[in-house]
Amino acid sequence: MGLRIKCPLLWPLITTSILLLCVNYSNSLAVISVDLGSEWMKVAIVSPGVPMEIVLNKESKRKTPAVISFRGEDRTFGEDAITASARFPKQTYAYLLDLVGKKADNPLVKQFQTRFPFYDIITDPVRGTVLFKHDDGVNYSPEELLGMLLHRAKEFAEISAGQAVNEMVLIVPGYFNQAERQAMLQAADLAGFKVLQLMNDYTAVALNYGIYRRKDFNETAQYVMFYDMGATSTTASIVSYQVIKTKERGFVESHPQASIIGVGYDRSLGGLEIQLRLRDYLAQKFNDLKKTPNDVFKNPRALAKLFKEAGRVKNILSANADHYAQVEGLLDDIDLKIQVTREQLEDLCKDIFDRIRGPVDQALKVSGLSMDVISQVVLVGAGARMPKVQERLQEAVKMDLAKNINADEAAAMGAVYKAADLSTGFKVKPFLTKDAVIFPIQVTFEREVEGQTVPKQIKRLLFGPMNPYPQKKVLTFNKHTDDFSFNVKYADLDHIQENEVKNIGSLDLRTVSLSGVSEVLNKHKGPNAESKGIKAHFSMDESGILSLLNVELLVEKNSTDDEESTFSKLGSTISKLFTNPDEADSEKTGEKPIHEEPEEGGEEKDAKEGKEKEKKEDKPDESKTQETKSDDKADDTKKDENKKDESEKKGEKKTLTKLLKEKISTEEEQLGVIPMSKDALQEAFRKIQTLNEYDFQRNRRESALNALESYVFDAQNKLEEEDYQAAATSEEIEKIRLGCSEISDWLYEDGSTADAEAYEAKLLDLQKLTKPLYLRVAEHRERPDAIAALRTVLNGSSTFLKDARNVTAAKLEAEESWVFTEIELNTLEKQIKETGEWLTKMEKEQAEQKRSEAPKMSIKSISDKINNLDREVKYLVNKAKIWRPPKAKEDLNNDAKNSTEKKKETKESKDSSAEGKEDKKEQSEKSTPTDGPEKVAKPDSSEKEIPDPSKPGESSDVPHSEL
Question: Looking at the record, which segments are called Disordered (predicted)?
Fold first, then answer.
C-alpha cells in the first residue's frame, strides 16, 4: 500500500504512531492450543515471527505430565509431581478428565475410586459432583485442579512467547457431553483464558493431517479413519476430505474441508487399564512371596510405587520381549525384582485386546460406510504403539496401518492452526472443518388434545446423530395459547453401547418455561393479523454446546396504504434497524424450521425443502451482464408502476404484508450436572489466585536466594584472581571480603527463613560494594581492543584524506569542479590530528596511573572519538556518492533547444488531433437527423501532471513511502 503525505513535517509523527500501533497490537497476538489429556499435556503456540511450534516446559520437554502434587502449601507440577506421588499419593492428583462434569454416582467415578482407592472422594452438597477432600476444610473440585494445570500451560506459553497469552483453543475428547464441555470452559475461565473454541481431539488430528496434504484433495470425497488409543480411552473416527465451493464476500471460492462422518469410542479402553493390570499383577506376585505380613494393596505408597514401575515396564515391553520390574524398599524395606515377559502382559490383558475392534465397527455403522472405501487407517495416541494393539487392529481393518503423523502432537498442532485462523492477528490458508453430533438432542413437551384427559407427549428431534455443527435450528409451537414449558434432553442413543449410555449420566439437560404467552397473543389479535406460531431459536456453536438463543412470537399482518400511518411506517423502519442479527441471518446460517404440527409430508417436507435450498445455494449464479440486470430491474419497476396506476384507476387499495416479532419471556432450569455458580467460580478463582501468588513468591524467594549465594561465591573467587587484586586497594579487598563473609554467616543463621525482599536488598548492597572494582577490571581488560580499533579508524581516515586531496588537486589544476571543498578537507584533517594527539597524551597518562585508581582513559571516551571521526568520513563519502558534475553551457543550450522542439511537436500533434475531431464532428452532424437531439462536445479537461518521485531526474515536494 502506497501513501502520499503532502506535508513532510507530519511524516515523522505519522510513522512513529504507526510503529507504536504495530508494537501494541503485536504484544497481544500470540494464541495457543492446549491438548489436555488424561495423562499428558501438550501446548502449541503461534506468535508474530514464530511459526506454529510446541512449547517446551521448564525441563525443555515437549509434553508435561498432567499431574499436580501438594505438600503443605507447596505445589508441584509435571515430572516433579510424579516424583512426589510415591511419597504423597493422596495429595497427588492425576487422570482428572474422567471426573469432570459428573455426578458422584456416575459409573466412571466408581471406576476411578476402584483404580485409585487412596483418594478421599466426597460429594459436593450443592451440585452433587465430585470433590477431593484434601485437608481439613480444604476440598478441590476437578474443575479447580484442571484450572491449575491450564494456568501452568499459560505460564509455559508466556515464557516461550515473551508476552501475555490470553486466547486458546482447548482440545477435549469428542465424546464429551454438554455438562463436561461446560465444565472444561469453566476450568479455562479459572485459568484466565478466553477460549476461542473447544475442539474435539479427532477433529484437531484430522485438520493437522489435512493441512499438509491439501493438494491431494479434490471434489471427490476421500475417506480416512483415525484410530486413537490414549491413556484412558479409544476413539475411531472416519473423516471425509473434499474440496467444496463456498461463497464469501460475494465471491465463490474453493476450499478443502474435513467432515466428521462417523465416530466410535470406548471410554475405558486405553493404556491406563493395561498399566493397572500389570500393577496388580506385580502386587500379587509380591504378596505371594510372603516376605512381610502386610498387604501391598492396603498401602497407598507401595501401590503408587508399583503403578509408576508398571508404566515403565509396559513401555519397554512394547519394544522388547522381556524386562525386569524392580522397586527398592517397596514395603517394609523389602525390594521387588520380577521378570515380566511381553507374552505374560498380553495374557493379562487378553479381554482388553478383544475390545479393540469395537470402536471401528461402531464408526463404520454410524457413517454407513464399509472398509472398502476407507483409503487409510492412521494410528494416533501412545497406546497404539503396542504390537498387540496394532496386530488386532490390522485384523479388524484388513489393511496396513499408516504411521504418517506425529501420534503425540498431531492434535495440538491441528488445534493451534485453528487458533491462528480464529484469532484476529493471523491469516492462514482456509481449511474448513465440520464436526458432528454424537449424542442427539430432542425437545419434548405436552399438548392438550380434545377428548383426552391426559396431555399428549410430543417429541421433536433438534440435532440427530452425526448432524453437522455449528448450526442453528428453529422449533415452532403453533397450538399453545397460554404459558407452557418444554424439556431439552438427549434423544434415543441406540447407536451407542449400553455401558457408554450409563456413563453419560442424566439424559435431561434443561427445562424452559415460557411466560406471558396469552398477553402477547392477545396483543396482536385482529382481523388482519395471523399468528405464525411461537418460534424457539436453538444454536449449537463451534464448541458443540447447545444454547437457546431466544423465543418469540411471529405475526403476519396485512394492511392498506390508508391504514398505515406515518408513525407506523417510522416504527417499522426503526424496528428493522434493531432486528436481532441472528434472526436476520437465519437463512444464511442454515436455521432449519421444525414445526409442532407439520403439513402433509411433515419433517420430510422440511428436509426436502432444505435440500432444495442447499442445491440452489450450491448452484453458481447465472452469468448476466450488469446491463442486463439493470434492464430487468427497470422493466420490473415499470410493470409495478403500471399495475399501481391500474389499481388506482379501479379504486383498489394496495395491500401490505408485514412480519412482526415480539420476544417472549423464558426461564431456564438446568438439569443433570449443574455448572458452577458465579459465587462458586469467584471463590474458586480466589483460591487458585492465592496458590498462584504463593508459588510466585516462593519462586521469587528461591531465585533471589540462589542469585545472592552465587554472587557471594563469585565475588570471593574473583578476589583471588590477579587482575582483581591489581585493580583494588588492600582496604577495598578487605571491605569486600568482610561484606561477603557477613552475608554468608547471615544466610546460614537468621537469613535461612528470610523473604525475597531481604535477599534482593542484600544482593543490591553487595553489588554496590563491588561495582567500582568490577568496572575498573572491565576497563583494563577492554582498553587494548578499544585503542586498536581507534588506531584502525585513524589509519583509514588518513588514507581517505590523502586520496581525497590528490584527486581534488588534480581536478582544480584541470579547472574542473569537484565534490570536496578545501574547508571540508581541512576540517577532517584537523579532526584526525586532534584525535591522534589525544590518543598519544591519554596513553601516556594512563600508563603512569595506578590500576587501582579510576581510569582517565575510559572505554566511553575512546568510543566517542571513534564515532566523531567516523561521522566526518561518512559525511564526505555520502557526499561523493550523490554528487553529479554540473552540465556545460553547450549541453544546457542543446537541452533548451530540444525542449523547444518537443513543445512545438506536441502543439502540432494537438492541432492535427483537433482537426481530426472537427472532421469527425462534421461527418457526425451530416449523418445525424435534423430532428434528433443536438450533441454537444465536452471540452477537454487538462490536469496538472504530478512528477513521479521514483524516477531519477524528477523532483517532487510530495514524499512517498510504502508501508
Answer: 577-652, 843-863, 880-963
